[in-house]
UniProtKB/TrEMBL annotation:
PANTHER family in the cross-refs: MOLYBDENUM TRANSPORT SYSTEM PERMEASE PROTEIN MODB
Gene3D superfamilies attached to this UniProt entry: MetI-like (1.10.3720.10)
InterPro entries noted in UniProt: MetI-like, MetI-like_sf, ModB_ABC
GO cellular component: plasma membrane
Family annotation (Pfam families): BPD_transp_1
Cellular compartment(s): Cell inner membrane; Cell membrane
Organism from which the protein derives: Sedimentitalea nanhaiensis
GO terms, molecular function: molybdate ion transmembrane transporter activity
Membrane topology type: Multi-pass membrane protein
Protein name as catalogued: Molybdenum transport system permease
ABC transmembrane type-1 domain sequence ranges: 13-221
Homology family: Belongs to the binding-protein-dependent transport system permease family. CysTW subfamily.
Length: 232
């Protein structure tokens, strides 16, 4: 692939893979917690939480990126505190691209996890709880094995969404080659210059392959999860 893609294209692809990996990995614990809360708990403000989780799907990505810039930029309340306390800068850094991708992919991850958790019979968890097992042990030994295919499917969808994230990312971290230029940003850049159609087309082909592969894997795992829960 290094012979087929040029250096700039390879850099953009490698950065997109890194950003997507870390955004998915960091989203998983929060996604599991939020999905479990929405699927199993009854509490005041549940619909508000559900709305906030899915807000990135409704808002224009540029708006999400601008809100991230206002909040996590160097002059933002959170961004200024992170820089002063930990020396961590997110705006116009690849770490900021991780945050943007994680937020944009989070609804898909939570949705897949919530459906998987709701498909598990609560009586299985209740039976384990009546034997004196703590809640975390019930989740780790009963719920998690049953939702694992759904969890993987959600992670794959989140990874694919992060790979294709553009609007929020370019608004929050810009489009700096070798630093914050992800695969979609590189495609956008190539299309703005004469003679950039060929590298743009190559990156489009890579994007299509990754997206189709992710959808295929997600569908296979979703079917496996349905069969597994039905046989539980």
């Amino acid at each position: 692939m290094s012979d087929w893609l040029g250096p700039t294209e390879w850099q953009a692809l490698a950065l997109s893979l890194k950003v997507s990996f870390w955004s998915t990995l960091l989203s998983l614990p929060f996604g599991i917690l939020v999905a479990y809360a929405l699927a199993r708990w009854q509490f005041r403000g549940k619909q508000v939480l559900n709305g906030l989780v899915h807000l990135p799907l409704i808002l224009p990505p540029v708006v999400t990126g601008y809100l991230l810039l206002l909040t996590f930029g160097r002059r933002g309340a959170v961004g200024g505190w992170l820089e002063d306390t930990f020396g961590l800068v997110l705006a116009f850094r690849w770490t900021g691209a991780v945050l943007a991708a994680a937020i944009m992919a989070f609804p898909l991850l939570v949705r897949a996890l919530r459906l998987a958790i709701e498909a598990v019979d609560p009586k299985l968890e209740q039976a384990a709880a009546t034997l004196g097992a703590p809640h975390w042990w019930v989740f780790a030994t009963v719920t998690l094995p049953l939702i694992l295919p759904g969890l993987i499917a959600g992670a794959v969808l989140g990874f694919a969404k992060a790979m294709g994230e553009f609007g929020a990312t370019i608004t929050f971290v810009s489009n700096i080659p070798g630093q914050t230029q992800t695969l979609p940003s590189a495609i956008y850049t190539f299309l703005q210059v004469p003679g950039g159609e060929d590298p743009a087309l190559r990156l489009v082909a890579v994007s299509v392959v990754v997206a189709m592969g992710a959808l295929l894997v997600s569908e296979l795992l979703a079917r496996r999860a349905a069969r597994r829960v039905a046989g539980a």
